[in-house]
Design goal:
homodimer; 313 residues; alpha/beta; Nucleotidyltransferase, domain 5; 2 domains; five-stranded mixed β-sheet; 12 strands; 40% helix; 19% strand; globular
Chain lengths: 313, 313
C-alpha cells in the first residue's frame, strides 16, 4: 500500500509517497507559509503533485512541529503561528479525499524508526532528536504513545537544573537549553571565545560567531583534544536527560537522531559512558540500548506515511 | 475471588486477604528479617495464617521495595539486602501452592489505586509517593507499565538540579533529595535553625532536631504564615518533578500518596498552582489532574492482591 507522508516544520513542508517497505516513490518540498489558508493550499498542491505521480495512494499522514491533541488540533506550536489552535485533522479531512491522520512530528519520526528504521521490532522504545531543540517520541507496545491528551514525549522541557539558563520557552534549566545541537554550538563558541577551543575555532575559519555544533563535532572527529573534551562534557548533559527518561520509562532502546548523529561513535560512545553512570543502579541491571537513528531527516515523512498506513489497514 | 497481597518494605512485611471489591478480610504484619531464608519463613507463616482464615484464597501477589525485573528477581534493593539478587518469584512459587506474581511496591500500589482507589477507571495515570524517598508507579492502558526490563517509574532518581545536594543513592540533585516527605522535614529544620519557622518549631516543642514534614504540615494546616511559606516552596519542588513527568508521559491523572496527603488541600492546592506554571504550555492545553490517593498505606497489599487476581483470571 502506498500512502503520503507530510512533515510540517517551521520553515519547510516535506512530503513523499511511501510504500510498506519504507521505499519513497515521489517527493516534494516547499516553504512553510505563514497562515493556515496558505498552508492548506500548499499542502493541497503537494498532494495533487504526489497523487498524479502515484494515483494509488490510499491515505495521508501528517507530522506537525507542535503539541497535537488527540482530536488532531494543534494546541501549541510556537514555530507554526499560522496553525496555532487550528483543527488540522478536521480541516485536512475536508481538503483531501482520503483518510487522514495527524500527530506531532517527533511522534511520527519515532514511528518511522520503529517500522522501518533503527528500532524495528522493538516494542518499547524512545526517540530523542538533538537539533535546534530536543524532540521526543515514545513507542509502547509497538505503537505511538500519546498519553491522556496527546502531548506525551515533550522531553526537551524537563527541568534538569533549577538555577540553569533560560530555555527558549522562558523557563529555566530545561534539558534542551543544555543538550540540544544548538547548545553544543553555544558551548563551542563560549570555549573558543576564551581561547579554550583552538581546533574548533580553526574549523570555523577563526570566526567565533560562526561556530555551531557541526564545527565542534568535526574537530572532535579529527581527534583534537579540545573538541573531544567539549563533546565529553556535552555527552554527559545528554546522558543526564537520557537517564531521567530511562529511570521513568525503562525502554528497551533509545534511538538518538538529529544532525549530530553523523558523528557516530565520536558522540555515541561518550554518551553511553555517562549514561551508565547517571542511570539508577546502572551497574546492577540491564540498561536501555542507545542506538543511532537510521532514517535521518526522512524519518518524518516515512513515519507519517507509515502511521497513515497503520490507520488505513 | 479472594487473593493474598504482600507488601514487603525495609522494616515491615504487611499481608492481607482481599476480594474483588477491595475489601480486606484478614491481615497480618511482621518485622522484615535480614536474610532471604528468614524472609521466606516469615512469609510462609503469614501465608498459613491468612489461608487458615480464608481457605478459598486463589493466588498471591507480592510488592517489594526495589527494582524487580520482568522475571521476578530483585535486581537492586538497598533497603532489602537479604533479597538482593534473589529470584523472588521462583522461590515463592516453590514456597506457596498457589499462583504467585511479584512486582515493585510502588507499581502494585499504583495498581491498587487504579483498581480500587483514586484513579479507578482511568487508563493512563501515574502514582507518586512522597515518603522517605519518592516512589512511582505507572498505569498505561489500565495495566501496570514495567518498561523493557521491568524497571519503569523509578521517578525519585531523576536529576532536577545539576549542582544539587547528594541523594541517598550517591548522585547529586535527584528529585527525591528535594521533594520527598523527608526533604520537607529537612526544610523545616533548616528554617527553624535560623529562626525563620517559629510555628513549626513550636509544633516540635522547641526541638529543631525533632521537626519532620509532619510538623511543618501541622503548622501550615493551622494557617501559620511561616509554615505556609515552607509548604509553598516545597510544593514548587514537588511540582517541578511532576511537570517533568507530565511533559514526558501526559497521564490523564497523577495520584499523590504518602503521609503528607493527610494535609489535603493545604498541600495539593499549592502543588496544583506551581504545576500549571511548570508544565509546558500549561495555560494553552488541558493538563493532568492532580488527585490525592485514597487507599493510604493499604495500597500496597490491596494492589498486590489485585495484581494476583488479574493474573489468575
Amino acid at each position: 500500500m502506498q500512502t503520503i507522508g507530510f512533515d510540517i516544520g517551521g520553515t519547510k513542508i516535506a512530503a513523499a509517497v511511501v510504500d510498506e517497505t519504507g521505499r519513497e516513490f515521489a517527493e516534494t518540498r516547499r516553504d512553510t507559509p505563514r497562515t493556515w489558508v496558505e498552508t492548506a493550499a500548499t499542502m493541497n498542491g503537494a498532494f495533487t503533485e504526489l497523487r498524479d505521480a502515484c494515483p494509488g495512494v490510499a491515505a495521508v499522514g501528517v507530522g506537525i512541529a507542535g503539541l497535537v491533541d488527540r482530536s488532531g488540533r494543534l494546541s501549541y506550536g510556537p514555530n507554526l503561528p499560522g496553525l496555532q489552535h487550528v483543527d488540522v485533522l478536521a480541516e485536512l479531512s475536508k481538503e483531501f479525499p482520503l483518510p487522514v491522520v495527524v500527530d506531532n512530528d517527533a511522534n511520527v519520526a519515532a514511528y518511522g524508526e520503529a517500522v522501518h528504521g533503527a528500532i524495528r521490532g522493538i516494542d518499547d522504545a524512545l526517540l530523542v532528536t538533538l537539533g535546534t531543540g530536543i524532540g521526543g517520541g515514545l513507542i509502547i507496545g509497538g505503537e505511538v504513545y500519546r498519553g491522556g491528551h496527546g502531548y506525551a514525549a515533550e522531553i526537551g522541557h524537563i527541568t534538569i537544573d533549577l538555577g540553569g539558563p533560560l530555555c527558549a520557552c522562558g523557563e529555566r534549566g530545561h534539558w534542551e537549553a543544555f543538550a540540544s545541537g544548538n547548545a553544543l554550538g553555544r558551548m563551542g563558541r563560549e570555549a573558543a571565545a576564551v581561547g579554550d577551543a583552538p581546533s574548533v575555532l580553526a574549523e570555523a575559519d577563526g570566526d567565533v560567531a560562526a561556530i555551531t555544533g557541526h564545527q565542534v563535532g568535526q574537530a572532535a572527529a579529527a581527534g583534537a583534544p579540545d573538541a573531544v573534551a567539549l563533546i565529553d562534557r556535552y555527552a554527559d548533559l545528554v546522558a543526564i536527560g537520557l537517564a531521567n527518561l530511562a529511570n521513568i520509562l525503562d525502554p528497551s532502546a533509545i534511538v538518538i537522531s538529529g544532525g549530530l548523529i553523523a558523528l557516530g561513535d565520536v558522540l555515541i560512545q561518550p554518551v553511553r559512558k555517562h549514561f551508565l553512570l547517571r542511570i539508577e543502579a546502572g551497574t546492577e541491571r540491564p540498561v536501555p540500548d542507545l542506538v543511532a537513528a537510521t532514517l535521518g531527516e526522512r524519518a518524518g515523512v516515512i513515519g507519517a506515511a507509515a502511521l497513515a498506513r497503520r490507520a488505513a489497514t
